[in-house]
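Revision sheet: structure tokens.
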Amino acid sequence: MKVTKAIFPVAGLGTRFLPATKANPKEMLPIVDKPLIQYAVEDAIAAGITELIFVTSSSKRAIEDHFDSNYELESNLVAKGKYDLLEVVRNILPAGISCAYIRQHSPQGLGHAVLCAKQFVMNEPFAVLLADDLIDGGKHSCMQQMVKTFSETNTSVIAVEKIAAQDTDKYGIVDVAADEQFVATIRGIVEKPKPADAPSNLGVVGRYILTPTIFQLLENTVHGSGGEIQLTDAIAQLLKIETVHALQFKGRRYDCGNKLGYLEATLAYAAKHPELAHDFKSLLRDFVECTA
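Predicted:
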């Protein structure tokens, strides 16, 4: 089956970025001139996904507004003859892409957020994308690589990357049959183990393709780490009944869930922006020289 649906869990409070996220969703924080959530959506659309499911909260209306039409803004751009900007606004979502929104009424973890979207997915494989992880896949987006792997294996696929050994307690960590292979069978997965207990240095990042079997498991998953329903725990149960593969994707991930990673992503994307790259690099050189 083709993967045509993607879940975007966007109900988090974004406390690491307070006060910026007090009234503005963290997923709407801009990287140059596009919000984080738009990069994740573009990753999904590039892979052929046409149905976008946002698991939101009461404070996330800005996300829904961003992907909706804004007739007042469009009329204003037409009146001022700013047709280039008009095309940018109108093409945030290409034709043929649909959006659905459902609220996660209480913060019960990533697993619970995915379960909230069950009614929209039903009995189909689906993707999960976390906007905090901004991934520059180059010619082929991370989700494109994952969809290709899914089509070849017909199994759930989890994106992983090698991380520093001392950082295992920040990630879900997989145990794979051969950690040097870009696609490998997962033998086990554990949520945020201490470095001494980690089965490998392959950390799970915010991209998944899952079979609908995961919903049955999430419904029976008890609250785990942090008192939340962990997607990692359900995947650990999935391993007992289905094959799951880890994909070491090609590309660069920026952890925009923390301030330093967010700043790094801003620098990287500004340095390759078609309108800004030359002047920004000059500005950056001047800044470094002045502060050296």
